[in-house]
Amino acid sequence: MHFNDGLAQLAPLSIAIPIVVACVMLSIGQRAPRVVVDTVAVAGATTVVGLDAALFAGSGGRVINWVANWLPGGGHPVGIVLVVDRIGAGVALLAAILMLLALIYSARYFESADAHFQCLMLLFLAGMNGFALTGDLFDMFVFFELMGAAAYALTGFKVEDRSALQGALNFGIVNSLGAYITLMGIGLMYARTSQLGLAQIGANLDHQRPNALIVVAFIFIMTGWLVKAAAVPFHFWLDDAHAAAPTPVCVLFSGVMVELGLYGVLRVYWTSFAGVIPASDMRRAFIVLGAVTALVGSVMCLAQRHLKRLLAFSTIAHMGLFMCAAGTMDASGTTGAAVYVAGHAGAKCALFLLAGMVLNRYGSVDEAALHGKARDARVPATLFAIASLALAGLPPFATGLGKAIGEDALSADGYWFGPVLFVAVSAMTGGAALRAGGRIFLGLGPRPRQTEDSAAEEETPETTQRFGRRSASLVGPIIALIAGCLALGLAPSSIHAIGGGATRLIDHAGYLAETLRHAHPTVAHDPTAIDWTTTGVVLGLVSALLAVGVAATGWYAEAVRRRLRSVLAPFQRGLSGMRALHSGHVGDYVAWLMVGVVVLGALVGLPLR
Amino acid sequence: MSRRVRMWMVAIAGAAVAVGMGLAFVDLPSFGGSHHPYRDAAIHGSVAHQTANAVSAVNFDQRGLDTFGEESILFASIIGVSALLRPSKEEQEAGPSQPGRVMEATRILGYAFIPLVLIVGLDVISHGVITPGGGFQGGIILASGIHLLYVAGSYETLGRLRPVRLFEHGEAIGAGAFACLGIAGAATAMGFLANLIPLGSFGQLFSAGTVELLNGAVGIEVGSGVIVLIAKFLDQAILLGPQKS
Amino acid sequence: MSYYGYFVAGAIMLTGAVGIARSRNLVHAVVCLSVSQAGTYVLLLSIGYQRHAAAPVFGSTIKPSTKVVDPVVQALCLTDIVVSATVTALLLALSLQIAKHHGTTDPDELSALRG
User: Fold this and answer.
1) Residue A67 gets which letter from DSSP?
2) Which of A226, A19, A23, A230 is nearest to A129 (CA)?
3) What is the ipTM, given to two decimal places?
4) Which of C110, C114, C102 is nearest to A305 (CA)?
């Protein structure tokens, strides 16, 4: 355990340093040439990668920092505590690595006189780090809002793009409303316990009966985090924001920001509420919400032709799977979710960056309009195929390993449909990406008819210059992401570290004892060895094969589909109904948010009566 | 979704949320009661660090990290607004519109109040540890003081007195100073944002250690930041207003 | 026993949320969002309130031994206000650009994002 020592001081530094670098960049940005600004930004992100890596390596136990040296002593603690364990340090590290790659990719991206883009990116990183490392509920809200403010501005950064503006506003309003509901929950908890620290609240609530106040406060707090996590029906903002945001920003949104929402849910539940709201209750809520989210996301993903929107819905689908895996409420399921998140970040971010390359080269991301246009681009085509198969869970990518661990945990808990759901969702999302890639890069299948909605969707270019075909600053980050996804899948020893982190994440008593009483860590054993199993490999291969099948159906089955029109008609109607619900109307989204709060209340609260 | 369906959804879900809130509220401690353990501890800490304004003690000392995050939100939002409201090429070419007519009384009152408001702003910032107020409140007063020039009708004087670029530096310096004071704490092994300078004595102008310095940093950041913020919106209103109509 | 402060807070928050759903103008929707957040200020301050207690700023008349209201919720509230003000500014900037590029601020007429 590290308690207020040198290592513990790195935690606040990883929040403060990106902010200092942003201040420097804002000051020099008006005069310094662009290359200097980019270098400073990349150097800042690299420093944060180093700090987070040191925290990750050192957080075998927990790293605890009572900020400003306000130690709890014997009495009522008044300070803020940062509590870093492997999962918290891991998501912070993931955020820093993705930020570094996104900044490298986006060097030369926007023609802007000042360094606003890079400043916002680093402030966004500070927010994500703060959210991941803090052990204080109100502090989580503050850093959640810092993430939010930077993210809204980054989404709308292409101010000439009509859909970017609308997407950013919808994102801003829905996320802020969610955050305020969370704050209301924090207020209720403060009134009940007179505490703001997660561990302090946990100690206060232990062994209490869950009354209406505790349950309502818990649901309100969950609301903001679940809006970020894009759980159905809180998810509507995500596809709007992802479809419209600049590509390097999408990398951070899909790769880590959305996952931080789920991290927030798990952190707050396990630390503060595990002693009062039974895990069985949470399991039901998580698995229902997760399964619905996965299904809605993957069906909508298949229906898209706008490449970035397609990838956005696939993120929603995968969030559903992460929720199901973590929803087993045990160490192995949580490990599966964590590994899956890391692998997914590699595959999905590579796909987003490839979509950005396509957009830069051909001025569109519509798979129908681009049919066969990119036949000459061999390297991107190969990378796109590999990343799509990785997304579908092909062994030995880390996505496949995370998926296998998650499936295993679900079926061990008696959820027989778990593996079916995981395979189906992986095949549908990976297949949708493959289908789009095959059309764009190989011109497979007949050219799809231009429909009204896709023809009307013009895309604003993000870049002012066309990049060279094999520009290293573009291809390099993509290869790094895919290689990372592969390396993590091939090195179960590093997975073992994540497994230990998952054990600590769900260790309620240990967190409280270490944070409040400085007791030595109680969990000595790490979970059973995590490695590829035969079942896992087979199911991974099956879902990759099915993904190819899904893609081939998209390329060649137009005629079959026409013949089966009468059989498929009800499905088509259901699908267009579901598409119509994603209306881009902020009023609708707020209505769904309120429905979501009620559904959450019914799932968590009613069975406790 | 049609408006009708949406309103029904909101009505039903809103009623259910209201019932949930009601059930939670009646479990809360009664309004206005005397049981506040965190308050007692916070006041104890405030007195121990010679800070007469307990709110400032919580904001800058005990829960300084929250305020650091909060100032970063302000910083991010102002950069965001600057980025979102950057004028496009056509907009840059359009000149400012002619100023409208301002009543003589408004003009005189505007000029008369400027020094007064600026002094109040500085006073609120500097006395943040001993009286209500502090960097945030004072910064807002300073920024609005300068904009009395706009109320008085001299947008051009405002433009000269308020070089936006300079205030962007001010904003960065304020936010950076806050962060550097925090890092200084970490460097001296006292801990990030630790109160590491002499505390002075209770109720004096220079007491409470770093709280006073952090107050100043926030005052610079908020004052400069809000000036930049309003400048961006005013640019849109004044430079672009006539184009639309 | 009285709870009316809390109920006022809940009512304000829900009013704001319903306002966004009903809104026909984005500027109105952004203001409704601030209304909704105002509910959280009222809740926080109600929680820290104590009858017949003074403000938590000590001086010649209010000694540290005097009963004061909770300074913690006031500090949280100040943070909350800054968040609200800055996020509102950002959202208004977005609304302004939407008005320029879409030619409308009615969410019913915005059509860049469908399905």
Assistant:
1) G
2) A19
3) 0.95
4) C114
